[in-house]
Amino acid sequence: MTDFASLLVPDRGKKAHAIHLVDKTSFETWVKGRPAGDRALLKAHRFDGKTGFAFVILPHGSDEFEVVSAVADAKSLSPWCLAKLAERLPEGSYRLAEGEPGQAALGWLLAQHRFDPYRSKKDEAETGPRVLVTGEPARIEPTVRLAEATALVRDLVNTPALDLGPAELEKAARELAERTGAEIRITAGDELETGYPLITAVGGAATRERAPRLIELEWGDAKNPRIAVIGKGVCFDSGGLDLKPASGMRLMKKDMGGAAHAMALAGLIIGERLPVRLHLLITAVENAVSGSAVRPGDIVRSRQGLNVEIDNTDAEGRLILADALAKAGESKPELIVDFATLTGAARVALGPDLPALFSNDDCLAEDILSEGKTIVDPAWRMPIWEAYDEMLKSDIADLVNASNSPMAGAVVAAMFLKRFVPADTAWAHFDTYAWRDSAKPGRPKGGEALGLRAVFAALAKRYDRT
Description:
- One of its GO terms (molecular function) is aminopeptidase activity.
- The structure is a single chain.
- The chain has 466 residues and is of the alpha/beta class.
- The chain has 2 domains: 124 residues, Leucine Aminopeptidase, subunit E, domain 1 (3-Layer(aba) Sandwich), CATH 3.40.220.10; 320 residues, Aminopeptidase, CATH 3.40.630.
- The protein has 15 helices and 19 strands.
- The longest helix is centred in the first third of the chain and has 19 residues.
- The chain starts with 7 loop residues before the first strand and ends with a helix.
């Protein structure tokens, strides 16, 4: 992974090129104070302080130069306002001429991360590292952790399913446990079949090498409040016997995006050493097709005891999450958060940038939404609409896993999950895309962390060590 710590360093008088950030309000005042040569150069570039300009280099000698860039708001910097500079400036060290980068340092770091293990020829146009100097040394380590967590999500989601199956998710979890001292437990084989029948049913068609498993990590003092973080880890989703069309299957390597988010969040919680007892659960399966695949019309008894009729084998994510939610609830956590690339309906409703947030707790939901707005990691709350519970009725079992109606797909999926959440436990469910269809500065096309930073900020606020 990118050495983010080397790209954000404390200001100890290090020589660095100045970056001037201006906006349409401040530009006129700023430019009047510049030398005549700078004003002429800016005029030649038709630079007027409005967004759309990546930057203009103002030379002052053979190796000396300054940079001016237009941003939307020079006083309130977004996480991404320095990202294009970090992508395109010459190799070297830089510092803001006024103020500190704050959360914009995150975009500076992530703009220099590349997922290129499958490129035989690297980008020849790419220059060396661009280092940002900051006068806020206390913010360096937390920012680096956020960048590492985001990059972890991106890298896991981007990795092809050929190289990332349930075993590889387990390996990533083991590396996290070894690095942090967390306890790890893997449930597979006969024990999985006995204890987690829904996970077994979904992953039962895969080859032995890609057999299903439940991955659990525990960390923290048992005396602290217990929280559970759950991630859907469908390493590839063919749709099962209700086979997806080619267009719907193309990106299904990303169907383990929920697991990637959950693992990254666990790393952040441990890195910040929040005073909690963390229980991480990753449901790692491949939804394949074979003679042992679960069939439409089959009925599977869940870990919780409810009998689930399989209406659609492509609604598999909620099945494996149900067993994980039941397991998490047995330890009586005060809070559960799950991440899943669960429904196309959420994307139809909210598009690719906004993960759908469902919650049975108004305070928890508001904390996540508020923190997400502050740090520009937005989500949108969707309703848990009790009237739609009737869409899950089965003629012969306790419930079905999917509705025959094309309406309210994301809501119905959340209603299914709610059946497996303890009534007195605060719960937040993210139906996230985990993908970016087109590139933006600092945010390349491909795997993406959506909602990760918002949840972590809300948890850090709730379990503030001070």
